[in-house]
Amino acid sequence: DDGSGSRAAGAQGGDEGPADGFDPGAPPPFGLADIRAAIPKHCWVKDPWRSMGYVVRDVVVVLALAAAAARLDSWLAWPVYWAAQGTMFWALFVLGHDCGHGSFSNNAKLNSVVGHILHSSILVPYNGWRISHRTHHQNHGHVENDESWHPLPEKLYRSLDSSTRKLRFALPFPMLAYPFYLWSRSPGKSGSHFHPSSDLFQPNEKKDIVTSTTCWLAMAGLLAGLTVVMGPLQILKLYAVPYWIFVMWLDFVTYLHHHGHNDKLPWYRGKAWSYLRGGLTTLDRDYGWLNKIHHDIGTHVIHHLFPQIPHYHLVEATEAAKPVLGKYYREPDKSGPFPFHLFGALARSMKSDHYVSDTGDIIYYQTDPKLAAGAHTSD
């Protein structure tokens, strides 16, 4: 059941699609198999040597940037280093992300080893993140079951105190959320990515979580040791500031892949939700010169529907799928060399996308006028 009969009961809040009569919440006239058939066969082929080549390239750049910054040790150079290195930490995360999806290679052991090394180096618990991210993909676009930047139902939104609301919607705070999400998840959900008995995990996954948390602790210990040897200021400059730039990149990109389109896009629950309908509400984004640096993470729609496609085939796969997707694919706004245009999309969304109705199967974001005006008062 694709839930087409639930529309009347559920279309609440916001403008429902563009003025040209296209309804983004209507069931698509194509299926996953139609999209899959349009994508060339070679796009599904994983090349472990090519994947490792990207890892080597990124690690060499990270080490070279750190060595150059330490050698220059100039307050003119440090801000440039922080922006560049934070972006490279984010690129490392994306490669580890591919390991988590199995799009890095067909060798599960290689994926796990590389994923653990890359993610532990930037203080991400690999298996904990991998499992919750799988939950996100399996439930994308579902109000209650999605795991990443899912909407708050109105009742939950109204129950938040003013400080929590501010942290969730007042920039820059939402762009610093990721480490806190890893520790305690989103409002309305409990559990930690570090704890083997967390609600996020099945009993047979406990061993995986212990492994990842141990690797995370080893990295934290290494950083503590380096702080003693090199001094806290040097570690702050070389690692801590780039780490927070990476966090901002991650929150910025993941939020904008599911929010901030010019037209309101639906979220689903109940029988209206399907894997295809949920995936079609994700958005591609253009990051200009940075597209290749962070491994075409902006080609998000096809990635969400078929996460096993390697990142270096996503642009071609997306082009091949566009004729099938039709208006369900939203062409991203073209970027200049740097994606400054996306700051406007982020700010607009934070001002208007606050909560969704507690009822209905096809629903749209609604705006809290007080919050939009900057009055962070508790109801």
TrEMBL record:
It is found in: Membrane. Residues 75-330 form the Fatty acid desaturase domain. The chain crosses the membrane at residues 54-72, 78-96, 209-231. Residues 1-23 are annotated as: Disordered. GO terms for molecular function: oxidoreductase activity, acting on paired donors, with oxidation of a pair of donors resulting in the reduction of molecular oxygen to two molecules of water. Keywords: Membrane, Oxidoreductase, Transmembrane, Transmembrane helix. One of its GO terms (biological process) is lipid metabolic process. Pathway: Lipid metabolism. Its main location: membrane. The keyword Protease does not apply. Residues 1-10 have a biased composition (Low complexity). Residues 18-67 form the Fatty acid desaturase N-terminal domain. InterPro entries: FA_desaturase_dom (IPR005804), FAS_N (IPR021863), Fatty_acid_desaturase (IPR012171). Belongs to the fatty acid desaturase type 1 family. This is Fatty acid desaturase domain-containing protein.
